[in-house]
Design a protein that fits this description.
Structural class: alpha/beta
Strand order of the largest sheet: 3-4-5-6-7-8-9-10
Radius of gyration: 18 Å
Distance between the termini: 31 Å
Helix content: 25-40%
């Protein structure tokens, strides 16, 4: 699989990575043996980048990854985790003392002395401008606790603020055919600064697979049920902030754009890979087949200009008005 430099980390990662939120059981229960099978299938398919967080399943996702990599030290996987959501979301909690405690927990979960990359997990907007906060992150690097740090963001404005900081290695942002705003300023600014871009929520919480209908029912412990309208955290995390009914109609149109031999999900991933400045895209996978299919998107031929134009037209007509002003 193609490997790209992840911004200021200087490290190469697979252009299709693996998001592991689902392994923490926030998308419904996942058995340990199934989680290990997904990780193994991803690695066998060329994936060298895992993305996780300390709150996914209260550390369950990190622990799965740590145990897997202990058994597979030859896997050559770069692991990015996140911190910050274990405390009340106020700027005052983004201080060195908390960072040290959260860092200790993640290093223990992952079984390493130094984290490859730690990302702030969508903190309050004021945090992105705090000199003291960046000093604390620099301290983690100086003490050898993390090799590099980055941010995960909700909005383009947050991303641009972070990109201007010299220590920020990469920015993780929602980017998919239903969320095009980052293409306007964020990706160009990141490329100019040498900051990596990690595309998250690439399938709009599954909408872009084209598998859902108005009769689809998600489990009670699935965020697509309990956060559909932003009840638990930012609404943009669920279905990319698109109303489910609108998303279903748009997804049906998008599915018709898939080239022969590619699924709608693979088409969405291929679209993201083609965007200038993207380092890696991190779809999740609940089973081995999904992990393999996601990785296979990296080998698809580039989408044609006609398809790219059709994606833009679909976004402008059905999606833009819902998401453009908010994220």
């Amino acid at each position: 699989m193609e490997q790209r430099i992840l911004g200021r980390t200087g490290r190469k990662v697979s252009v299709v990575g693996l998001g592991t939120w689902q392994l923490g059981a926030d998308w419904g229960e996942v058995r340990e043996e199934d989680a290990f099978a997904v990780l193994d299938a991803a690695v066998a398919s060329g994936v060298t980048f895992f993305d996780t967080a300390d709150v996914y399943g209260d550390g369950r996702s990190e622990q799965f990854i740590g145990r897997y990599l202990k058994e597979r030290p030859d896997a050559g996987v770069f692991v990015a985790t996140k911190m910050g959501r274990r405390a009340e979301q106020v700027p005052e909690n983004y201080v060195l003392a908390n960072f040290l405690a959260w860092n200790d927990r993640s290093r223990a979960n992952l079984g390493v002395d130094t984290l490859d990359l730690v990302q702030l997990h969508c903190p309050p907007t004021a945090v992105y401008s705090s000199d003291e906060m960046y000093d604390a992150l620099d301290t983690l690097v100086a003490r050898g606790r993390v090799a590099a740090y980055a941010v995960s963001v909700e909005t383009c404005e947050q991303a641009l603020t972070a990109i201007a900081r010299p220590g920020v290695a990469s920015v993780q942002i929602i980017l998919n055919p239903f969320r095009l705003k980052p293409l306007e300023a964020v990706l160009p600014a990141a490329a100019e600064a040498g900051v990596g871009i990690v595309a998250r929520v690439p399938l709009a919480s599954g909408l872009l697979t084209g598998k859902y209908t108005r009769d689809t029912v998600f489990a009670a412990d699935d965020h697509r049920t309990y956060n559909r309208h932003g009840e638990a955290f930012d609404q943009g995390e669920t279905f990319s902030g698109v109303d489910f009914e609108t998303g279903l109609d748009a997804a049906a149109e998008f599915a018709a754009l898939a080239p022969e031999g590619a699924t709608p999900a693979q088409t969405a991933l291929r679209w993201i890979i083609q965007q200038p400045g993207v380092s890696s895209v991190i779809p999740g996978a609940r089973d081995v087949a999904q992990a393999r299919a996601n990785a296979a998107a990296a080998a698809l031929p580039p989408l044609t200009d006609a398809t790219l134009d059709a994606v833009r037209e679909l976004y402008d007509r059905r999606i833009r008005a819902q998401v453009q002003g908010r994220w």
